[in-house]
Amino acid sequence: MKILIVEDEPKTGDYLRQGLIEAGFVVDLVRDGLDGLHLALSGEHDLIVLDVMLPSLDGWGVLQTVRRAGHEMPVLFLTARDQVEDRVRGLELGADDYLVKPFAFSELLARVRTLLRRGKSKEPEMLRAADLELDLLRRRATRGGARIDLTAKEFALLELLLRRQGEVLPRSLIASQVWDMNFDSDTNVIEVAVRRLRAKVDEPFEPKLIRTVRGMGYVLEAPEAM
Ligand code: CA
After folding, report:
1. So what's the pLDDT on residue 197?
2. How high is the pLDDT of residue 92?
3. How far is the CA of 119 from the centre of ligand 1 (A)?
4. How many whole angstroms separate alpha carbon 138 and alpha carbon 157?
5. How close is the Cα of 170 to the center of ligand 1, in Å?
6. Which of these, 23, 58, 84, 124, has the minimum number of CB atoms within 10 Å of its CB?
7. How many whole angstroms from 113 Cα to the centroid of ligand 1?
8. Are 74 and 119 in contact (CB under 8 A)?
């Protein structure tokens, strides 16, 4: 895990660098906003510890440019003043957390670890079961590499089943999550939708992934051996 520290105050910067190295991180330390920006844009860092008041370009400017360039690594702001405007501005610009100086190193380390954990558990872009793949970014489904055309509702239904693989999902839950409304229990809207989905993603293929659990609902599950 590689961390970039942008901090012009020599004592604070050295202290942070030393502490983070001892905690097992690889650390780059720069003391100037523009240098910080250039390093941040390399995209090599898993997290940035960013001071607000910096020479040549302040922390706001660094963060704004980094986010506009599409980098999403967590950013922890260091601010000298506990002012609401500062916090709001930082969060609006895409900071993930902030610390008010002076702070204890143990506090910074705890925040850093939390942010790194959160960063890793980001939303998956791809959901899978056996050879079925749902690409959430491109809104595309494939099975065995072959493209499957789905309606928006079918996509939402498949996404729900894939996200909760192995769980039996009652019709009422499917109705509320996919159709955003409650259906009477005797309605066949869900059944029809599931049948259509199966015809596309299951019938032409093996193994079958979507099962009906009588009286309970539906479950999507890949067989163990896959
Ligand atoms: Ca400073």
Report:
1. 97
2. 81
3. 26
4. 16
5. 55
6. 84
7. 23
8. yes
Look at the domain 2-120 and name its fold. Answer: Rossmann fold (3.40.50)
Distance 32 CA to ligand 1 centre (A): 9
Q: What is the pLDDT of residue 226?
A: 46
Distance 33 CA to ligand 1 centre (A): 10
Dist. CA 99–CA 77, nearest whole Å: 6
Ligand 1: centre distance to CA 86 (Å):
14
Q: What is the pLDDT of residue 123?
A: 59
Place of tokens 């749902």: 134
Binned average pLDDT, 10 residues per bin, the chain of 226 residues: 96 95 95 97 94 94 92 90 76 85 91 83 77 89 95 93 92 83 67 95 95 93 72
Q: Where are the domains of the chain?
A: 2-120, 126-225
| Pure H helices in the chain | 10-22, 33-41, 59-68, 84-92, 105-120, 152-163, 171-178, 189-201
Q: What is the pLDDT of residue 25?
A: 94
